[in-house]
């Protein structure tokens, strides 16, 4: 089954979630409302809600319960994207902070805060404290992950372990928690919950690695932004860490990263990407991503054979091979 | 009883809260840990925890329950201060965004996110969903209040109502919620909870109005920062709104605000403050603050006479007259 068919199968409940998302960010405050709605309308795969729904299908599926975790999870994801943009926004104005860009940044920050708070507020519709505990813990880890990313900017001495720990916090945990909360909100037992959590965690790791690979080898058209945005930001990803292990390429890569860190204009990164592509960095990253996909699928072994299980496996394969 | 005596009376439990605060922001992440701890050590009056404890004294006082609302409330307050500083930080560097200042800003933003998340996570120790609902709702309102402040920057047409709604969200609600959650966590009934909430709300309104008065008429020594920081940021406060209602002063005040908005250097605001002081703006603001104090004290009327009630009244009077 293709991804589009899975979405078609879940269509009516995804629409319910879409409406709840819109309702949740409705605010008497015009600017907040517009900023949040703009973000919402920009779309997205709604991957976290889909994982909630699919996990929920293994238990007592009730959309009126599941929506109270699906919507907060998507909101938390959205809020983290807004905060990611806060400083980048000023950056595009060549480092000059005008009053206008200053306001934009503050507005982005408070829009993020607002969406975070709305997410948690909506989750309180469910009276199970475990759910609030898991959600707030995921948010703690995500903010640590963001800080880690900043701390390791342009750090070419970082280990693969540093990278993995970072993407675990930044990306994989929230996807794991999506599966976990779908399980809890549909009354599944501890064993099934653990399996679904493990599935989500491994899919999330693979997803982020693939994302980082695509940022290097995708085209501008596929990505919707010029390739190499990670390295321009200073974010050293897995293919780069692997490539730096090649003795022949290491010193020229270090030179290029040094240049990029000093002046990250668009044309500066071409040489970097060319050198990188000649190493086995991308391939090794893809291999690790595939191993996570295998682990994700293996985590489902003891769950009953069903349409839902098949869907989760298909999504895992999609994540492993997605070209954009 | 002076404020210092109230703190002395609550000393041992304030120390417990202080330790829990420190414990709560302890992180395996060094940078986050240092940034949060620095903030914590900078001190503060811990006003929100004190209100929690005092409200709790009307019910079944249990510090092991109360600390799980007192600490989150102080953390939410701290996180909002960090986010307030995010852009100001860049500002002090004369609008030029260096790589260093960019990182500082991102770190401030994620430190705030981290502290918010830690606050909510700690509150989940209490299994009462009403508490999480009240906390997250307060956070929603606070972020709207911050946005409102930005929207009204340099807006000289704003009404007193706009100002009051803004400080209600930014300041008064969290203080009201401190009293309310202290009441809930000590098992008080709905009636007492409402009274304590009303007390906190009115004290919070008075507190913010006094703060805005002091920002204009306080000295640098008293304030720990040069006076007039509100107007330099573009924040038009109650004394200014009242002053603008004076026909004789209005046009010269508008001129000065225009100049400040274009170039908010330190010396530029002296004339503004001088003109303002000649109007009845400060006095009228003080009068409104006093009315809120009266309402705060009246809200306690039906609570039993006790040392605690006396303390709350003393705090209200202190807030009404504080000189710094």
Automatic annotation (TrEMBL), chains A, B:
Magnesium listed as a keyword: yes
Source organism, top-level taxon: Bacteria
Record-given protein name: Heptaprenyl diphosphate synthase component II
Lineage start: Bacteria, Bacillati, Bacillota, Bacilli, Bacillales
Family under the similarity heading: Belongs to the FPP/GGPP synthase family.
Database matches in NCBIfam families: GerC3_HepT
Keyword vocabulary terms for this entry: Magnesium, Metal-binding, Transferase
Required co-factors: Mg(2+)
């Amino acid at each position: 089954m293709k991804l589009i068919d899975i979405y078609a199968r879940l269509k009516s409940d995804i629409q319910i979630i879409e409406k709840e998302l819109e309702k949740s960010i409705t605010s008497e405050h015009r600017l907040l409302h517009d900023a949040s709605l703009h973000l919402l309308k920009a779309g997205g795969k709604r991957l976290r809600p889909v994982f909630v729904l699919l996990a929920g299908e293994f238990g007592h599926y009730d959309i009126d319960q599941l929506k109270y975790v699906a919507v907060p999870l998507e909101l938390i994801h959205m809020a983290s994207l807004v905060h990611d943009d806060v400083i980048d926004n000023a950056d595009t104005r060549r480092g000059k902070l005008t009053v206008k860009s200053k306001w934009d940044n503050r507005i982005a920050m408070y829009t993020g805060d607002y969406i975070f708070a709305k997410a948690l507020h909506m989750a309180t519709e469910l009276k199970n404290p475990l759910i609030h505990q898991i959600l707030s813990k995921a948010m703690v880890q995500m903010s640590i992950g963001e800080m880690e990313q900043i701390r390791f900017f342009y750090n070419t001495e970082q280990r693969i372990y540093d990278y993995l720990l970072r993407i675990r916090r930044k990306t994989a945990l929230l996807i794991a928690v999506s599966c976990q909360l779908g399980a809890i909100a549909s009354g599944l037992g501890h064993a099934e919950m653990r399996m679904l959590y493990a599935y989500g965690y491994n899919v999330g790791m693979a997803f982020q690695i693939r994302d980082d690979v695509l940022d290097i080898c995708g085209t501008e058209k596929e990505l919707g932004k010029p390739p190499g945005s990670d390295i321009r930001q200073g974010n050293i990803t897995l293919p780069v860490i692997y490539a730096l292990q090649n003795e022949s390429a290491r010193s020229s890569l270090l030179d290029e990263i040094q240049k990029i860190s000093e002046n990250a204009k668009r044309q500066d990164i071409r040489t970097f990407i060319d050198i990188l592509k000649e190493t086995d960095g991308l391939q090794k990253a893809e291999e690790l991503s595939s191993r996570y996909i295998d682990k994700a699928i293996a985590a489902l072994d003891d769950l009953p054979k069903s349409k839902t299980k098949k869907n989760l496996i298909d999504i895992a394969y999609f994540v492993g091979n997605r070209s954009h």
